[in-house]
Amino acid sequence: MRYIEFEKVAETVESLCIAACYELPGDVLAALEEAARQETRASAVKIINQLIENARIAKEEKIPLCQDTGLAVVFVEQGVQVAVKPPADDSDATLAAAVNAGVKAGYEKGYLRKSVVAEPLHKRRNTRTNTPAIIHHSIVPGDKLKITVMTKGGGCENKSQFKMFRPTAGRDEIIDWVVNVVNSAGADACPPFVVGLGIGGDFELSCLLSKKALLRRLGTRNADEFYAQLEKDLLSRVNALGLGPLGFGGDTTALDCLVETAPCHIASLPAAVNIECHSHRHKSAVL
Predict the structure, then answer these.
(1) Do 221 and 210 have their domain in common?
(2) Domain stops at, among 152, 172, 193
(3) Are strands 82-85 and 193-201 parallel, antiparallel or unpaired?
(4) Does residue 192 have a cis peptide bond before it, meaning omega lies within 30 degrees of 0?
(5) Which of 264, 269, 265 lies closest to 167 in space, CA to CA?
(6) Are 234 and 175 in contact (CB under 8 A)?
(7) For residues 39 and 252, is the Cβ–Cβ distance under 8 A?
(8) Do 79 and 146 share a domain, yes or no?
(9) Helix (H) or strand (E) holding 184
(10) CA 6 to CA 237: how far, in whole Å?
(11) Is the same domain home to 213 and 264?
(12) What is the pLDDT of residues 24-76, one digit of tens each?
C-alpha cells in the first residue's frame, strides 16, 4: 500500500483551484483560435479575439479569467493500492477533508470569489470558504491518486437540464432536445459553449456523465462511432442556431459537443445536458 500525506493532497487541490481559475486549458484556447479563423461574421471574430486576449491577460497577470470563480467540482480517482495518510493531530481526517482544506486555501490565497451558501432555500449565508466542494470519488486500479478540479460558474450551470425520455426515443429526438436546451440557454450562459451530454444510467448518473463529458479534450470523439457521429451532428446543429459568441450572433455557438453513455434500465432512457461557458476551467494532477 502506498500512502500520500493529507497535506500533499490539500496542497495539490489548492494549486489546482488557482491554476484553473487563472489559466484557460490549451485545448480550449486552441478551439477559440480555430473558431476565430472559421468565423464568417466580423463582429463574432472580434468577440472571440477579446476572449483570447482575456485568457492571455489572466494567465500573465495571475488574475481570474472570470469574476465568477465557480463552485469547486472535484473528481478524485483513487487507486486501490493508495491511501491518504491523515495528519498526526487528526487521525480521523478523510480524503474529503483534504480536498476541502485545499479548496479553502486555494480560494483564499488566489483571491477567488467565494460563492457557496451553507443551505439553499432559507438564509443562504455564504460559507466564506467556497466549501464544501462537490466531490465525485471513484476507486480505480493502481497506486495513483488523480485529482481534477473544475471551477463551474453559476450562469452556465443554471442552464443545464435533465429529461427522462421514453425508451423508444431515437437520436433525432435527443438531438432536437439538446439543441432546444442550448437555444434556451442563450446569452445568459456565456457562449461559445462546451456542451456535455450524458445518456443512460439512471437519474443521477446521466447528470454525472454529462459533467464528466466536459473533462474530455475538445476535438476528441467518442470511441463508439455511433456516438462520435452524434457528437458531430450535435455540434453542427447547435452552431446552426447562430447565437454566436456571447449571444451577439455568429457561427460559433459551441466549441464542442461531447457525449458519454452508460447502460440503463430497459424501461428508461435518461439524458442530461451540462452547459459550460467559454471560460471552461479545469485542471488535473496525478500523485
Answers:
(1) yes
(2) 152
(3) unpaired
(4) yes
(5) 269
(6) yes
(7) yes
(8) yes
(9) helix 171-185
(10) 46
(11) yes
(12) 999 999 999 999 999 999 999 999 999 999 999 999 999 999 999 999 999 99
Residue 150: closest CA among 10, 9, 257, 283: 283
Cα distance between residue 36 and residue 129, in whole Å: 37
Q: Is residue 49 part of a domain?
A: no
Is residue 268 classed exposed, middle or buried when 0-12, 13-18 and 19+ CB atoms within 10 A define those classes? middle
What does DSSP say about strands 161-165 and 269-276: parallel, antiparallel, or unpaired? antiparallel
Count of domains for the chain: 2
Nearest by Cα to 137 from 107, 104, 100, 112: 100
In degrees rounded to 5, what are phi and psi of residue 126? -65, 135
136 with 248, same domain: the answer is no
For the entire predicted model, the pTM comes to 0.95
Average of per-residue pLDDT across 227-232: 98
Judgement on whether residues 131 and 223 belong to the same structural domain of the protein: no
Going from the C-alpha of 249 to that of each of 36, 85, 238, the distances in angstroms are 13, 52, 13
Pair (160, 218) in one structural domain: yes
121 contacts 256 by C-beta, under 8 angstroms: no
Q: How far apart are the first and last CA of the chain?
A: 14
Q: Which amino acid is at 118?
A: A
Residue 92 pLDDT greater than 90, yes or no: no
φ, ψ of residue 286 to 5 degrees: the values are -120, 125
C-alpha cell at 144: 495513483
- The 8-class DSSP code of residue 1 comes to -
3 state SS of 241: coil
Is-contact 103 127, C-beta < 8 A? no
